[in-house]
Every structure is written in structure tokens, then in C-alpha cells.
């Protein structure tokens, strides 16, 4: 397994994997996610690939086929004047092809993101997990992540 920055040739696989992760979210939150859709279009993915502050890394097999991805965003802190300034690498989305799960691809991608965050001078790696996505919560806890904050909602 090799990890590299995503390229335009990866867009069809990225879309397929985005569909897989959307299905998981739609099962957890059918009130807000639409099954059969994806977070990005082909055009939006092509634009994202050009943005240095929003790197997308892919894990590819020996045939250079994308088996998993991680979408990241480089963020500058603070959100307000009462916080120490620092950089953060936010994981916007991480998905491994359902046929390839259990092969430690997610762990490899996560470790790669941690390395890149260090290279970029980041203080931390952060992400959000939907309540109910217990497999993702367990995975990230196994990778050493801890809950930083909780976002709560009241549905009207």
C-alpha cells in the first residue's frame, strides 16, 4: 500500500468511496443525509485537488487504485483573540473501501496525516464524528484521539 496526494485520475474512485461514507451517514442520520448522493461533484473534487490548504491523500494498491482516502483542511487558530495562535490539520473525511477494511489501511492513512501535520508545523490533528458512528469513534480512539469538545443539537 502506498500513500500519495490524490490526482485527477483518482476522482472516479473518490466518488465511489464518498458514496460509501455517505451511506453510513444516511443510515445514522436519515433526517439530514440523502442516500445515493455524494458530498462533492466531479467539478468540486477537481477544484479541491488544486487547493494546497485542503490536501487529499489516497492509499493506493499495487495497481495504483485508490482503496481509501483522507480529506484534510489546514486551519489557522485562534477562533478568537483569547486563544494562543496555532495551526491544526482537520480531517474532514476518511474512508476505506468496504472491500478493503480490516487491512490497516485506515491506520496507515491516519499515521500519514499525523506525519504531514508535523511537517506543516501543526499543533494538533482534529476531526468530527457523528454520534452513532461507533465504529469510527472506536477507530479514532484506538489511534490515540481523545474527545476535545462536544457539539449538541436540539431538533425542532
UniProtKB/TrEMBL annotation:
EC number: 2.3.1.-
Keywords per UniProt: Acyltransferase, Transferase
Entry keyword Glycosyltransferase: no
CDD domains documented for this protein: NAT_SF
InterPro entries linked to this entry: Acyl_CoA_acyltransferase, Diverse_Substrate_AcTransf, GNAT_dom
Domain N-acetyltransferase: 1-156
Highest taxon listed in the record's lineage: Bacteria
Molecular-function annotations in GO: acyltransferase activity
Gene3D superfamilies: 3.40.630.30
Signal peptide stretch: none
PANTHER family named among the record's database cross-references: DIAMINE N-ACETYLTRANSFERASE (PTHR10545), GH14572P-RELATED (PTHR10545:SF29)
Protein name: N-acetyltransferase
Organism ancestry: Bacteria, Bacillati, Bacillota, Clostridia, Eubacteriales
